[in-house]
Specification:
This protein is an all-alpha fold. The protein is elongated. About 20% of the residues are buried.
Length: about 130
């Protein structure tokens, strides 16, 4: 079974993670959980931002408003999914005494948020076309 499928199965049965290697120092597991919660807070903020753009910027052209909203909503969904995946991958690596996994996701998320922010700055500076 592929590593991805095993990780995906652990999303829904996290107790099975105990079958992997040895239990790490609890402080590392708790730090991993705090990181997970930070990702979830970020996801919630992105989703809230997506709804805010849609609801509070009615003067924007429909396509622009929906595009910005969907970009933020999609980033929030991906962030929430990535949070659980990252938690599982890190917990497995700690239990196996392996290096922690690296990811390009923070870069992709940062670039997405930056592009949306720049678009919104341009709209604010140059006016909202209705």
């Amino acid at each position: 079974m592929s590593d991805f499928v095993q990780s995906l199965r652990l999303w829904f049965a996290p107790g099975r993670i105990r079958d992997e290697g040895e239990t790490p120092d609890y402080r590392f597991s708790l730090a991993n959980e705090r990181t997970f919660l930070a990702w979830i807070r970020t996801a919630l903020a992105l989703i809230g931002g997506g709804f805010a753009v849609d609801q509070f910027l009615p003067d924007l052209r429909w396509a622009v408003r929906v595009g910005l909203s969907l970009a933020l909503l999609a980033a929030g969904v991906l962030c929430a999914l990535r949070a659980v995946n990252h938690w599982i991958r890190c917990e497995r690596a700690m239990r196996r005494d392996e290096d922690l996994p690296v990811s390009r996701f923070p870069t992709v998320l940062s670039l997405t948020v930056a592009v949306v922010a720049v678009a919104m700055v341009v709209l604010v500076v140059f006016g909202r076309a209705g």
